Each structure stands twice: as structure tokens, then as C-alpha cells.
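Session log. Operator J.P. requested a structure for one protein chain; no other inputs attached. Running the standard single-chain path with C-alpha cell output.
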Amino acid sequence: MSEINLPAAAEPVDPVGLKALGIAAAIAVLLAAPFLASEYWINAIIVPFLILSLAGLGLNLLTGYAGQLSLGAGAFMMVGAYATFSLQLRVPDLPLPLALIVAGLIAGAVGLLFGIPSTRIKGFYLIVSTLAAQFFFEWLFLKFPWFYNGNSSATIALSRGLSFFGLEANTPHGRYYLTLGIVALLTLLSFNLIRGQTGRNWMAIRDMDTAAAVIGVPVFRAKLQAFAVSSFILGIAGALWAFAYLGSASVQSFGLTRSYQILFIIIIGGLGTIRGAYFGAAFVSLLPLALDWLFQHVFGGHVDAGLLQNIQKAIFGLLIIWFLIKEPEGLARLLGLQRAQGARRRLFPS
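Structure written below.
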């Protein structure tokens, strides 16, 4: 009897190995990015993209995962920036990383304080209470010169620049690696947090806080935890925005427009997903560049700069409306990178 030769079965692909390979490739690209991009891209695009991603992550933990609406992101970023400036000015021996952590803790404590109303109110009324933080800190940091050391221009800047443990981070590469390290660390901590009991408590409150209380979730404590953690991350993002991106900042650097920008980032990127903060920040950072390039090539530079800026705002607003109507879960769902988890989440949970 002749032998029958059967084709050998293909060896199964190891998904763990592929994932590890993908992570290693991503890390290699991130580490080599400063050597592949120009200084303009590093200073004007990549660094602000990373910081906006971090700020979006902070707000997404509060709004996307815990269901607590907030328009005070700019205020908590402001607190982190001014706290870092004050610590570096008045405690000169304090290393910059510790100053950032302490500033984040101060912002977290402020967020905890303004999160207390969330135990009694929700929805639109909670937005108003967090909006009060925005106006209050704008007034506070302008009213008292102590916060900006009596500078005639009312701006803040680190006198020693970005230096810690004898290392200088004032170059484009230094600012990039400092920002990347902080963003990566806080993203990893956030990822582990939402996978634990704290994250499950937040999501239970987001879906229905009354049912969460019935099954034993400490609603009061979990809401305050969400405000504190979110404000901690936003405070560090604010310090990076002021000193790693802008170099010097003022109250106007963290105005209400900034709060709206961070909110738009998580709406466009996707509520309740960590990767959504990065998608939304990329969209916000790259869309103006793409529109500017398009108009320059289509109209040959004959469009007035002011008109172009207004057109960009109009297009941006229309895209936000489109996302809210057609894809409320943002780019994360649109790109097929977020699995369905029950019913679709609403922006204004009841």
C-alpha cells in the first residue's frame, strides 16, 4: 500500500510573542523618535501631543471610567503648574521629579475638594460645580502676586530650567525624554488601576451608581478617588505643559479653552478607553496641520491667516458634532480597536 503524504499542519502563531515583538518595536520607535524627527516636530508637535494625551488620560479616568462630568481640567492643570513653580522657587533643593509628584498631590487634593459635590449632584449640575474651579483659580493666581513671584508679566518659569539629579533636560531631546518617561509611567499606572478593584468600582458607578451602592461599592469614596487621581494626573500634565512645552506660562495658558480642548480629546478619542486619550490628542494635534497643508496647496497660500483659523475651528466643531452623533465612542471604536462592552455609553449618564 502506497503511503499517503499529508501536508504538515502549520505551526500556530504565538500571540504572546507577537505582542511582545510589537511592544519592543514601539519602544524602539519611541526611543529613536528624536533622531528621526526635526526639532520643530519635537517641540511643536510630539511633546504637546504627549502632554495632551496625558491630560486626556486624566480626564478620561474621571469622565470615561467613573462617569463624573467635569469642565475643570484646565484648573487642575493650572494648580499643578503653579505648585511646581512655587516648589522649585521656594524649595530649591527639591529635585524636579519630587516637585512634580508633590505638585500632582496638591492638584489631587484640590480635585478631591471640588469632587465633594459629586456625592450629591450629577450631570449638568456637576459640570457647573467643576466650572467654578476654573474661574476660581484663574482669579486666585492673578489676584495674588505671591503665586507668580511678583513678575510684572504675571508669568511663571523655572529659573533653573528642567534639570534634576545633575541632568539637563532643556534641549528638545531632553524635554522629549522627560515627557515620554512621565507619560509612559502614568499610563502604565492608570492601566493597572482600572484593571483592579478601583477601576471596577468606577465603572459600576458610571453604569448606575444606585445599583453600585446596593452591591456594596463605596460610592462616596470611589467618586472622591476618581477626582483625586484624575486631578493628580492633570496637575502633572499642567506642569509639563508649562515648562516642558511652553517654557513659561500664565493663567491664560490654562483657560476655559484648555478645559474644552481636553474634553474634546476624550470625546473624539473614545470615552472609557486609555488609548482613546492618545487618539484624541493625535487628532487635535494633527488636524490643524493637515488643514493648513491642504489650504496652502489648494489655494496656493491666498487664504488669509485669520480666515483660515476660523475655518479650522468650524471644521473642528463639525467633526465633533459628527462624532457625537455617529460614533459616540470615538476613534477607538471607529478604528475597531475597542471591543463592545454591553450597551453603548452615553456622554451624559443619568
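Operator note: The two ends are 74 Å apart (CA to CA).
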